[in-house]
What we know:
Helix content is 35%, strand content 26%. It is built from six helices and 14 strands.
Amino acid sequence: MFKRSPLKSQVMQKKRRRILALRLFLLVLCGGGLIALFLSISKLDSFIITNITISGNKAVTESVLRAIVETHLEKKYMNVVPRNNALTLPRRAIATEILATFPVIEYAALSLNNLTSMILRVTERVPYVLWCQKNMLNECYLADRTGFIFAPSPEFSNDIYLRFRNDERENPIGTYILDKKMFNALSYEIENLRSLSIFPIEVAIDDKEFELITRDYKIVFDTSKSFEEIFSNLKIVIEKDGSLRRALTTRGALDYIDLRYGNKVFYRLKKPD
Length: 273
């Protein structure tokens, strides 16, 4: 066998090191050139955003949203790369701050109309129900279809929205009335009660016990069964019980309905005056 001489091995190692150093130098040179090119392009007037359009806002003023966008565009990445151009527009950062600052806004997204013009589109939450402090009749808040509480409620002269009362919170905005799955299931069943001539104006919740309160009577139930099972059973009883069916459509005839005892439905009629 032939052995490589130590001298040749040292020469080969030096050659490899020189090649590696050259490649590293070229890589750094190319990287630096690309960065310099990128910085030069990002500062060109043809890439700088000069026009901001905002759409979808009603409760939140345009000037406030514009101020957030402009504050982000005035900053620089690592104090070097400007953010006010089409290549480095901080879309996620702007949208995240808007959503965190304004709970009334459900969705925010930024896009480019062209290289110098951007548009901010927002979608505001639509009131669906009210959440009220348990022991404060006049302190209520607006909540959307998911039960997300997003703004103080103005005073209404009538029962425009269904009210929920389940606890007291120091700052309820940004929280949910109930677990989202539970709220959606309950809301669905309450909507279906209209076909049975049942029109709740308030939902009072005490731990696991619920009361649907109408203008004349209340319906009491708990979470021992699913809401679907509870109200499906009520529907069956109403269809079979003529006395209960008539009481539901007669003003002042019914006192309460109790659904807490399995498949049994208890109710009490009011005594006539």
